[in-house]
Write a structure and sequence with these properties.
Blueprint lengths: L12 H20 L3 E2 L5 E3 H7 L5 H6 L1 E4 L5 E4 L4 H10 L8 E10 L11 E10 L4 H18 L4 E7 L3 H15 L8 H9 L14 H4 L10 H16 L4 E3 L13 E7 L8 E5 L3 H4 L7 E7 H10 L10 E7 L5 H13 L4 E3 L6 H10 L2 E7 L1 H6 L1 E6 L5 E5 L3 H8 L1
Parallel strand pairs: 1-5, 7-8, 12-13, 12-14
Antiparallel strand pairs: 2-4, 3-4, 5-6, 6-11, 7-9, 9-10, 10-11, 14-15, 15-16
Helix pairs in contact: 1-5, 5-9
The protein binds adenosine monophosphate.
The site of adenosine monophosphate (AMP) has 17 residues, from strand 6, strand 10, strand 11 and helix 11.
Length: 416
């Protein structure tokens, strides 16, 4: 038997209904903020992620699925969604019409060690907002994500928020961090030793050394922000307060990707079973770094798989309609064509209809109707076909009524 790859899973049955529900709710929330859907390829040139996500990030150094294709080109299966959307914006000149508000959904691939809440094929759902450097836009993006989680029915949700300043601020902070860590770096993991010179900010979110006291006592980026950055950050907090977003400032939050400037944030559940549920930030330099125009942007991505796990963890009762309107049973195969024709007509009128064509026993067919949570059962025998009158059984009250086939739509309108 051929088995699935490590870190991947199949989505079917009740899980697929949950996925469908979460995706549709996210779409509805995005549409209420006037975001439109974008889909970009799974496969991109490797260079996009090296330049877009960053050469020193864990994702690019250790986790991408890279391969040389039959034409000798270096390709990468996307590890995240933002870089591909940025490429599409530049290539299709979508920036000619700003502001640009886009949402996406899709699978991403990272060669990580699979564990609870961490997969190699992960789904992400996210938004990208291009065209404004305004704290209201940061607050809008953060609150969109927060409101979505609330609408999902998650209760223990809060946002971690930080500003990592612009490039100048970060350079000064980087220096301070190097001074802070350099004499004690022997006590850190091998990755952190390398990070010290390449990207010391990343030491702060090391998954191995996160309990080290030196990380707790490290200087805070917030003390390095210039007046403009401070004011910008204060305004975001002001708007988040007025939008009643539950957040806390966490100056150790730096996020794993290189393209962020100033605002960074992550969504957590208080139980913190699966790590961050999602995160995002501002990336004003991303388009320019990919040879595009200088256009500011802010966005977020949720780990879709983690959201679904959190829904299960909090035992949230999603409002999923698992019912069908009517299940059609035929007494013998002779009535199948008549039943098939009726089913089609009713489907065209917008009803959810199914019928059994497997030739099972009547008892098994009734069981099937229950498995589909059919609200109504239609029973068709040879008499029904002759008279064009079918037997309708309300599957809750078990009450039966004879209905002329021409009156079925009216019957459904009253009884569903
Ligand atoms: P990132 O693109 O790394 O900022 O991640 C955004 C969100 O995707 C995280 O907050 C997680 O919820 C989720 N995520 C990242 N990596 C994985 C993974 N390997 N498996 C499942 N979810 C992930």
């Amino acid at each position: 038997m051929i088995q699935k790859l490590k870190g991947t899973y199949d989505v079917y049955g009740s899980l697929s209904k949950k996925h469908d529900y979460v995706r549709k709710l996210f779409q509805a929330v995005c549409e209420s903020y006037n975001y439109s859907y974008i889909e970009t390829p799974f496969l991109e040139r490797s260079e996009l992620f090296h330049r877009g996500v960053g050469e020193t990030t864990d994702i690019v150094t250790k986790e991408t699925y890279d391969f040389v294709d039959r034409g000798g080109r270096n390709n990468t299966i996307r590890p995240e969604g933002t870089a591909g959307v940025a490429r599409a914006i530049i290539e299709n000149k979508l920036y000619n019409e700003l502001p640009l508000k886009l949402w996406y959904y899709g699978s991403m691939y990272r060669y990580e060690r699979p564990q609870k809440g961490r997969y190699r094929e992960l789904r992400q759902i996210g938004i990208e907002s291009y065209g404004s450097h305004n704290p209201i836009m940061d607050a809008e993006v953060i609150s969109l994500g927060f409101n979505f989680l609330k609408e999902l029915g998650l209760k223990d949700i809060y946002v971690k928020l930080n500003s990592i300043g612009g490039i100048e601020t970060r350079n000064k902070y980087r220096e301070a961090l190097v001074n802070h860590f350099k004499d004690h770096i022997d006590g850190f993991c091998d990755d952190c030793k390398e990070r010290l010179n390449k990207n010391p900010l990343r030491i702060l979110d090391c998954k191995i050394d996160h309990d080290n006291e030196l990380i707790e006592n490290a200087p805070s980026i917030l003390d390095f922000l210039n007046n403009e950055e401070k004011e910008y950050f204060d305004k975001i907090k002001y708007y988040l307060d007025s939008l009643e977003v539950d957040y806390e400032v966490d100056s150790s939050l730096v996020r794993g990707l290189d393209y962020y400037t100033e605002t960074v944030f992550e969504y957590y559940s208080k139980s913190n079973e699966f790590g961050a549920l999602g995160g995002g930030g501002r990336y004003d330099n991303l388009l320019k770094s990919l040879d595009g125009p200088d256009i500011p942007s802010v966005g977020l991505a949720f780990g879709f798989d983690r959201l679904v796990s959190e829904i299960e963890n909090e035992e949230v009762n999603l409002n999923i309609d698992e019912t069908i309107d009517c299940y059609i049973l035929t007494i013998s195969e002779n009535e199948n064509e008549f039943a098939f024709d009726l089913a089609n007509k009713l489907r065209m009128c917008g009803f959810k209809i199914d019928l059994d064509l497997t030739g099972k026993s009547m008892k098994a067919k009734f069981k099937e109707a229950d498995r589909y949570f059919a609200k109504q059962i239609m029973i068709i025998g040879d008499e029904e076909v002759k008279q064009k009158i079918v037997t309708m059984r309300d599957n809750l009250t078990k009450e039966e009524t004879k209905v002329n086939v021409d009156n079925l739509v009216d019957y459904f309108d009253v009884n569903l």
